[in-house]
Task: inverse folding
């Protein structure tokens, strides 16, 4: 009986450590991304009310030491500022701030890393309380109730050149 209990205990120990190694951390907040340092697995980033959307995503990418990532998400934002870029890359974008809370119906984009400087490029579809939609390039936003993002790390860094004056920053091939 004693040998059987030892065998069962050893099996449980092996199973639990195998399970722990096989189950990567799947959800973090903007202050715990360091736990994912160097990950190549997708994860959920949960942002809380009052956080700066773009800064929180870029900080997480830096803390997790991501080479880059694809981003998708949903949730709620407050007082978002959206940008519209004309077809002239030298022209400044048109910025519009929408006062109040908006449903973040869809968010997608990417994170690039140029020499440890992270740039988060996002587009959003937002809906007001009348279910009317607006969409554009996210220039700024504060998290409302929550924002839940899926970050899928890229295997290699993606280079982007950002014009400081216009904010236009195409990916370099």
Result:
């Amino acid at each position: 009986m004693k040998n059987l209990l030892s065998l069962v205990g050893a099996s449980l120990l092996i199973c639990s450590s195998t399970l722990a190694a096989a189950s990567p951390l799947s959800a973090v907040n903007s202050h715990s991304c360091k736990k994912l340092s160097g990950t190549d697995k997708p994860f959920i980033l949960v942002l809380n009310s009052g956080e700066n959307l773009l800064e929180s995503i870029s900080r997480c990418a830096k803390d997790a030491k991501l080479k880059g990532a694809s981003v998708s998400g949903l949730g709620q934002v407050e007082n978002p500022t959206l940008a519209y870029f004309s077809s002239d890359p030298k022209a400044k974008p048109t910025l519009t701030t929408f006062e109040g809370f908006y449903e973040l119906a869809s968010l997608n984009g990417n994170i690039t890393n140029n020499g440890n400087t992270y740039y988060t490029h996002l587009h959003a579809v937002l809906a007001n309380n009348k279910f009317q939609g607006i969409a554009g390039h996210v220039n700024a936003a504060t998290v409302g109730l929550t924002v839940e993002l899926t970050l899928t790390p890229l295997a290699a860094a993606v280079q982007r050149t950002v014009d400081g004056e216009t904010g236009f920053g195409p990916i370099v091939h």
